[in-house]
Amino acid sequence: MPAKKKTALSRIKLFVLDTNVLMHDPSCLFRFAEHDVFLPMITLEELDGHKKGMSEVARNARQASRFLDELVRDADDIDAGISLKAASHKAATGRLLLQTRALDGQLPAGLPVGKADNQILGIVMALHLAQPERQVILVSKDINMRIKAAALGLAAEDYFNDQVLEDTDLLYSGAREIDQGFWEKNGKNLKSWQEGGKSYYRMSGPGCANLLLNEILWQGGEAPFAARVLAREGKTITLETLSDYSHSKHSVWGVTARNREQNFALNLLMNPEIDFVTLLGQAGTGKTLLTLAAGLALTLEEKRYSEIIMTRVTVPVGEDIGFLPGTEEEKMAPWMGALDDNLDVLNKSDDDGGDWGRAATRDLIRSRIKVKSLNFMRGRTFLNKFLIIDEAQNLTPKQMKTLITRAGPGTKVVCLGNIAQIDTPYLTEGSSGLTYVVDRMKNWAHAGHITLQRGERSRLADFAAEVL
């Protein structure tokens, strides 16, 4: 091989794909830029075995097969590799290589040959020995597979292309603390006025250029300040002060904000101009309670929405809700314990009517809250609804898009979740649909986000969360 060609080949890596990567992201074939992609025959066999059914995994397996069919159909010489340039619209300039003959990599005797994972490891070993001049890397979502590869001295990586953020500590929190220096730097041309019971400030300066729409600025101290970025043009911003929901006079369906972040959340939830709200936080920070309180106040008191629709992911995600007896609502009941717990708290605030009054109120509330399964959301349009998506961290970005695009005129969508509690395989904190929407919607005039920090369940729950 000429030296020049050898050097060029050594720069181009060879990525061997595990089946779970194709089932996680069917378009992964086009995500490796100038590098080559190798598909073992066992990967195609496993892909074929997963294509039946209506689950997200089966849909992805079928889509991956369709992509492969299109590529193979137009190929002249499969042995030499199939160019990905045309199919990927020049996003990938490498080649797709399919296994066309048996490859024998000598694995340790302790690894059973019949297992698909070990067959793929054997192929990676054989390619590594056959092409020592280039990097051969296994790509798998399976942690144990990557550990086995490392133990055998083979390069292995997770599939990173679906990750919105490498580090979730960098995820937008929705609120920013400011100090006196902020006012000194940006307050030279400060204008303020009052309108409709709220104060407004217009200022410009270098510290305003990086602020996002609906980001909340706050300052502690003796005279606490909290305001929302209402508009931004270049280095000029307009701030609107927040309502104080921590006082019982401003309670929302009997609920008051117990800390700063809860107050910020209630301001976003109660604002008619904000159509999309995301609330992140650990268990016990009040995400579901605040959202239900706001939903009931806006639906029953202000009549802004016709009803509340609540849905949550039934793990395994998107699978059939099964053969439990009853209607869709009754089948969803085992997953909706959180809803009933929060309704008990919200009902307690209505003590005037006694037990009969509370029972009547509870029936009224339940009649205005519909519990829906994610499986039956496709093709629907919700008009004037308050849509709550609970446990949203278990959704993929694609499922999240499917749900949010159901919103018709006058509908508000609220996504709740805790990215530290992901229950589904192949999703991480960085690739969760919740992380995806927080990052993508963060500078839209009609979207707001808050990360709730403090647990408010009880002193026992707070202490346990800290020490256990």
UniProtKB/TrEMBL annotation:
Gene3D superfamilies (alphabetical): 5'-nuclease, P-loop containing nucleotide triphosphate hydrolases
Coiled-coil positions: none
GO cellular component: cytosol
Cross-referenced Pfam families: PhoH, PIN_4
Source organism, top-level taxon: Bacteria
Limits of the PIN domain: 13-147
Annotated transmembrane regions: none
GO molecular function, one term: ATP binding
Keywords: ATP-binding, Nucleotide-binding
Keyword hit for Protein transport: no
Family: Belongs to the PhoH family.
Name the record gives this protein: PhoH-like ATPase
